[in-house]
From TrEMBL:
Stored Pfam families: HTH_48
Alphabetized InterPro entries for the sequence: Mos1_HTH (IPR041426), Transposase-MT_Hybrid (IPR052709)
Protein name listed in UniProt: Mos1 transposase HTH domain-containing protein
Residues in Mos1 transposase HTH domain copies: 3-51
Length: 83
């Protein structure tokens, strides 16, 4: 399961008044070994406690990641060969 999928669950349970320990127990019961660590849970719990509402990663400064899908590589190859 993707990390972004846990965050709304953590936020929901936080807004429902659950403690970190109860949220962790619920995540472990539902997701088992795939549930996030207590460290991750603590991080997001504290973020929500300080007023954060978004469950998405914030933009980071710096160069954006390179994108190189097979489709793009093929299009560039065709353009080069066409010249």
């Amino acid at each position: 399961m993707e990390k972004q999928q846990y965050r709304p669950v953590i936020r929901f349970l936080f807004l429902d008044g659950k403690t970190r320990e109860k949220i962790k127990a619920k995540l472990d019961a539902v997701y088992g070994d795939l549930s996030p660590s207590m460290t991750t849970l603590r991080y997001w719990f504290n973020k929500f406690k300080r007023g954060r509402t978004s469950v998405f990663d914030e933009e980071r400064p710096g160069r954006p990641p390179d994108v190189a899908s097979d489709e793009i590589v093929e299009k560039v190859r065709v353009m080069i060969l066409a010249d």
